[in-house]
Each structure stands twice: as structure tokens, then as C-alpha cells.
């Protein structure tokens, strides 16, 4: 059983779990996206989804949006700790936007993106949402969803 303790601001400050744990995951900080070509991948996410490209460390690239970021890792790169399978095109990602579903479809098409499915009703972390699916240059499945107007 979780026993959350909240600060004055309502933020979760500590969770005690019955089996002796003293913490629980609060959020995702970043995801690493393995790709064939960093420039092509970064350009697509900036051009299609409006993310911001940033450089850090020794020439590494990240894409930022809201309070999150995606580190863009070229497949086979040395010096990166990575998953057992270094495989571009193996992710399913869902991004939330604050727009009407029709706007999402219009923007994707205006940028030359093929919508593989949508608009379609789905259930997200916050409830009903409307999604459009497409693929990035490496073939990752990218879901662009909105909670606006969803039943």
C-alpha cells in the first residue's frame, strides 16, 4: 500500500511502500532514441513536431519539449550506455499536443507526413484522447494525441 506524503505545493515528496521501499518513480526525465542519422532524425522532430534541438556534451544532440527531452543517439555510437538491442525503428512513442484533432492531421499532412492511422479514439494516461499515427525517418511509430474534444 502506498502512503504518499505531500508538500504544501502538492508535490509528492516521499512515498512509503508496504514492502519497505521508500521511493517510487515520479516522472520520465528523458528517452534515448537510437537512429541511423542524427541530422535527419533531429530535423524531422523539429520540423514536424516543433521540438527544439540542443547540443550538449561532446557534440551530442537532444530534442527538448515541455520539461522533457529525447537524446538522439546514432546507432553503434561508442561511449553511450544503451539497451541490449541497439535498433533504430523499434520504439512506439506518444506525444500529447494542445490542439484540436483536425489541426494535428492538417499540420502533419502540411509537413509531408503520411498518417498511417487516425484520427482515432484511444485511452491515454489522463483518459480519452484522439490520436494520429505516423512514422519517423527510422520507422519508429509516432502517435500524436490530443485530449481536446475527446470523449
TrEMBL record:
InterPro entries for the chain: Glyas_Bleomycin-R_OHBP_Dase, Glyas_Fos-R_dOase_dom, GlyoxalaseI/FosfomycinResist, VOC_core
Transmembrane segments: none
Record domain VOC: where: 27-147
Protein name (database record): Glyoxalase
Phylogenetic lineage: Bacteria, Bacillati, Actinomycetota, Actinomycetes, Mycobacteriales
Amino acid at each position: 500500500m502506498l502512503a504518499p506524503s505531500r508538500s504544501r505545493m502538492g508535490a509528492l515528496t516521499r512515498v512509503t511502500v508496504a514492502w519497505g521501499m521508500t521511493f517510487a518513480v515520479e516522472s520520465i526525465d528523458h528517452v534515448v532514441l537510437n537512429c541511423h542519422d542524427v541530422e535527419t532524425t533531429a530535423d524531422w522532430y523539429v520540423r514536424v513536431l516543433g521540438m527544439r534541438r540542443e547540443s550538449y556534451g561532446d557534440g551530442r544532440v537532444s530534442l527538448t519539449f515541455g520539461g522533457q527531452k529525447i537524446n538522439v543517439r546514432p546507432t553503434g555510437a561508442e561511449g553511450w550506455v544503451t539497451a541490449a538491442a541497439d535498433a533504430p525503428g523499434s520504439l512506439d512513442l506518444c506525444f500529447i499536443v494542445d490542439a484540436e484533432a483536425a489541426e494535428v492531421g492538417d499540420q502533419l499532412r502540411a509537413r509531408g507526413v503520411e498518417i498511417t492511422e487516425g484520427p482515432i479514439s484511444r485511452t491515454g494516461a489522463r483518459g480519452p484522447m484522439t490520436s494520429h499515427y505516423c512514422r519517423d525517418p527510422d520507422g519508429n511509430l509516432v502517435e500524436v494525441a490530443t485530449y481536446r474534444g475527446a470523449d
